[in-house]
């Protein structure tokens, strides 16, 4: 048996954990630089506000009229609460897999194990425990395959009568839930594929389950054929404990306000260089060549400006100092006087695995593995950017705009909640 635990409106729900005053209000969370809506709580959704990826300035008056609480993305808070939620869920099963920041799969093995209280009560126990310990509302769906667990989770959160928990254990339960699901709601069925399926008369998840797997393989792909088998209770999808290394790594971000100073642009580039170097070390990769770019806004009144430069290293590297030095050396070629820069970034374009790299005896590497290991150890233990290169700047004027940022209740000492007890 598999279980899928999924937080309801993750970002908005996290905002309500430490602020009881907004728990019964519509809450909307914005993307980087407070640009667009990225999440809305159920109260906001029922009120018809908070549609995803709509620019905030377009619906600002509508949100104010509805009394919505606006929040900037507090990634530090979301990541910490996500980790706590995952730790709580994984106590309930021998195997687990974190699928995303708000979802995790639980697997109970291939045997005939069944909890004494039954699967439904077991799922309810997971949901109640997460609420009691983390104060996040989750939906729990259980099924004989990961795809059926996803379908059960969909029922738990969106279909009437389930109230946050659904279990697909019998044939009757399977058919009942799949019949109420559109084929586009099935895990792995995107918009284009669902349209093609609709064209051949497959509209519901049950229609897809009743299709022939070999026909789906010929018409679509092996993945769709496996989905058909999964919907019929035959587990075909598995996950790896370690994700495949990325073939390219980028760090980009738009500025909170337009940048016109060369030094500020240099600091932003150095910051992005440090980020990709850290990610390279995390997945045990080396960069052969790295690109740096900066550009103005395409929507600005002044002429659009964009410049990119690529640096190739004689010896592949993942050393923060080496990559930062190379990127900052391109600042004179990228910077232009009078340009109001909107965004910049750094990207490692060609990567190789450290275990497969054969050093060149005629080219000495400038990497200092011991120093980088010390840097990562300190930052992992005491928090990101506890130590960093001076090139990144002490006061980052290029930081993204977060005008509605809530306190970082669990990751910043100054923001820890304070409780005052009055003598009776």
Automatic annotation (TrEMBL):
Domain UmuC: 2-190
Name of the protein: DNA polymerase V subunit UmuC
Molecular function, one GO term: DNA-directed DNA polymerase activity
PANTHER family: DNA REPAIR POLYMERASE UMUC / TRANSFERASE FAMILY MEMBER (PTHR11076), PROTEIN UMUC (PTHR11076:SF34)
Family in the record: Belongs to the DNA polymerase type-Y family.
Pfam families: DUF4113, IMS, IMS_C, IMS_HHH
Protein's GO biological process: DNA repair; error-prone translesion synthesis; SOS response
Gene this chain is encoded by: rulB
A cellular component term, taken from the record's GO annotations: cytosol
Gene3D superfamilies: 3.30.70.270, 3.40.1170.60, 5' to 3' exonuclease, C-terminal subdomain (1.10.150.20)
Keywords: DNA damage, DNA repair, SOS mutagenesis, SOS response
């Amino acid at each position: 048996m598999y279980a899928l635990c999924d937080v309801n409106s993750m970002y908005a729900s996290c905002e309500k954990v430490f602020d009881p005053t907004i728990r019964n209000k519509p809450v909307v969370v914005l993307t980087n630089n407070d640009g667009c809506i990225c999440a809305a709580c159920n109260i906001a959704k029922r009120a018809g506000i908070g549609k995803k990826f709509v620019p905030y300035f377009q619906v600002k008056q509508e949100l104010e009229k509805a009394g919505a609480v606006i929040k900037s993305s507090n990634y530090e808070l979301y990541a910490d609460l996500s980790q706590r939620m995952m730790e709580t869920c994984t106590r309930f099963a021998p195997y687990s897999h974190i699928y995303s920041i708000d979802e995790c799969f639980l697997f109970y093995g291939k045997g005939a194990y069944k909890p004494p209280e039954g699967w439904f009560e077991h799922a309810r126990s997971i949901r109640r425990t997460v609420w009691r310990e983390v104060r996040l509302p989750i939906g729990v769906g259980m099924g004989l395959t990961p795809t059926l667990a996803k379908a059960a989770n969909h029922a738990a959160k969106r279909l009437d009568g389930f109230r946050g928990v659904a279990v697909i254990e019998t044939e009757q339960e399977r058919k009942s839930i799949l019949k109420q699901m559109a084929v586009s709601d099935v895990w792995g069925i995107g918009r284009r594929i669902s349209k093609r399926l609709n064209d051949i008369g497959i509209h519901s998840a049950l229609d897809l389950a009743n299709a022939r797997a070999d026909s789906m393989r010929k018409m679509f792909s092996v993945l769709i054929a496996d989905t058909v088998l999964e919907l019929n209770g035959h587990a075909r999808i598995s996950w790896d404990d370690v994700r495949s290394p990325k073939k390219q790594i980028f760090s980009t971000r738009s500025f909170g306000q337009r940048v016109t100073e060369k030094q500020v642009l240099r600091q932003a580039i150095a910051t992005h260089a440090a980020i990709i170097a850290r990610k390279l070390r995390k997945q045990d990769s080396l960069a052969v060549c790295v690109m740096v770019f900066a550009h103005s806004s395409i929507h600005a009144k002044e002429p659009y400006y964009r410049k990119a430069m690529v640096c190739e290293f004689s010896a592949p590297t993942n050393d923060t100092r080496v990559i930062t030095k190379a990127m900052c050396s391109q600042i004179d070629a990228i910077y232009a006087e009078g340009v109001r820069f909107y965004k910049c970034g750094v990207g490692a374009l060609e990567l190789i695995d450290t275990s497969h790299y054969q050093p060149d005896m005629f080219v000495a590497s400038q990497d200092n593995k011991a120093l980088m290991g010390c840097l990562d150890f300190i930052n992992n233990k005491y928090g990101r950017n506890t130590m960093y290169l001076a090139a990144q700047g002490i006061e980052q004027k290029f930081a993204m705009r977060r005008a509605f940022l809530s306190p970082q209740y669990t990751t910043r000492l100054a923001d820890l909640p304070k409780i005052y007890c009055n003598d009776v």
